[in-house]
Design a protein that fits this description.
The chain has about 230 residues and is α/β, with parallel strands linked by helices. Helices cover about 40% and strands about 15% of the residues. The chain has an 8-stranded parallel beta sheet. Helix 5 packs across helix 6.
Amino acid sequence: MAETAAARLDHIRDQIAATERETGREQGSVTLIAVSKTFDAPDIEPVIAAGQRIFGENRVQEAQGKWPALKEATPDIELHLIGPLQSNKTREAVALFDAIHTIDRDKIARTVKTEMEAQGRDLKLFIQINTGNEPQKAGISPDEADAFIARCRDEFGLKISGLMCIPPLNEAPSPHFALLAKIAERNGLEGLSMGMSGDFEMAVGQGATHVRVGSAIFGTRDYPAKG
């Protein structure tokens, strides 16, 4: 019999708790974000029923198609945007999400601030750092991180909760987690959104406060074929 998403969720929770113990972290100090991108409401509902309340999505439009009804049914759900945010989707993102992990340029910082004020919402905000300086990937260069964090705080008036990174696929993640933690520490930031299905235990050991786990909970994704 195939393992259910709820059973896989329990396993991930146990792994996080065990790693917290092994590395001297306070129990419950790591927030599990269940990444539900590409999965529909019937796939997500059993995970909600198993007690998971924090979920991550990559695309605003996809999230709009399934999460309003799910959040209405379970009001204490917290939804995190973990994919790139386009400025023309900022209004919708601020209305639907409770946290954004991908603040990565001045225009987005400004528009998010404007929309939060207009809508009377106060989202948790993370700045995405492109720790591998990958040209195809979103995020601020590590060399520019300190200045951008300062602008977000001083110029745009944003309260920044922490930093996020996605290490390069072909590199060991540990140095990237260490770099993110170093940037956060020198800027007085506590939040570290790092670690996914394949490396979340390592991330917990290096100080992650949020881990983003999708396929290890929901199973293999069926991405639509590109035409």
